[in-house]
Amino acid sequence: MIQITDREFSQFQQFIYEAAGISLSPAKKPLVCGRLGKRLTHHKLGSYAEYFRLLQSGTAAAEVQMAVDLLTTNETFFFREPQHFELLRKLAVGAQASSQTFRVWSAACSTGEEPYSIAMVLADCRPDGAWEILGSDISTRVLQRARSGYYPMERARQTPSQYLKRYCLRGVGCEAGSLLVERSLRQRVRFEQINLNQPLPRLGMFDVIFLRNVMIYFNVETKQQIVERIATLLKPGGHFLIGHSESLNGISDALKPVIPSVYRKP
Questions:
Q1: Are 55 and 67 in contact (CB under 8 A)?
Q2: pLDDT per residue over 13-31, tens digit each?
Q3: Which of 17, 170, 209, 217 is deepest in the core (most CB within 10 A)?
């Protein structure tokens, strides 16, 4: 494998920061080398500097998206941090008296386990069907996987058994060890590519927004900009959920803490 120099690594640090707001620490140098190395081979390039020039040439938009996809880390599973889904149930049930559609945005949905977990909860507690879910990510690669609804069974280890029975198909034979989210549930989740580091498209207003386990990749300034941008799409009284290892202290005054990792818009 071709080794990446410090100067080349700094170029890709700047590249992914400008593209997605992600700050790569020096410890991520092997990750960059490992994930982009195959692209050098594919294009028959002799150095990462050559590959960087290709990305900067303005003639390789598809390759730029490929590089962004490869450099964004995506790791998740169904019902991760289950307390948030217990809260979601309470909020959805409590909103049933309203005539408005209950809307939830999974704003960094990766391969889709989070929005499908949300969908299972809402399908169970809101049989009226008056709910909508948007899942978004910067990576087209993970969104393609999300739309398929096909996963290794190990990703569902925290999924309540009744949800597995009602909303998932278990693989058999050559598909053993896998699951497929049931078609009618898949059709209730809309996926869209959205870069949170850029002005947001018109998405409407949401009752609950999940932005979990992604801000750890941003510096303070980028966190402030992204939270401010997303919070404008949260309904008054709406809830904003982040990862348990994250905090909005010093990031936003527009959202008030309820419990650790849960904030509310006044």
A1: yes
A2: 999 988 888 888 898 899 8
A3: 209
Q: Cα separation of 74 and 182, whole Å?
A: 23
Instruction: Report the candidate in 215, 185, 205, 194 with the shortest Cα–Cα distance to residue 118.
Output: 185
pLDDT, the chain, mean: 93
Question: Can you tell me the distance from the alpha carbon of 82 to that of 240, in angstroms, rounded to the nearest whole number?
Answer: 15
Contacts by 170-178, CB closer than 8 A, 24 or more apart: 177/152, 177/153, 178/150, 178/151, 178/152, 178/153
Domains assigned to the chain = 6-71 (1.10.155.10), 83-264 (3.40.50.150)
Tokens (6 digits) for 148: 């398929």
Neighbours of 79 (CB within 10 A): 22
* H/E element, 222: helix 220-231
Q: How far apart are CA 230 and CA 15, in angstroms?
A: 23
Burial 171-190 (b: 16+ CB within 10 A, else e): beeeeeebbebbeebbebbe
Q: Which residues of 25-52 are buried (b: 16+ CB within 10 A; e: fewer)?
A: eeebbeebbebbbebbeeeebeebeebb
Rounded to whole angstroms, the Cα distance separating 106 from 203 reads 12
Beta bridge partners of 105: 134, 209
Residues annotated catalytic, as ranges: 35, 137
pTM score of the predicted model: 0.86
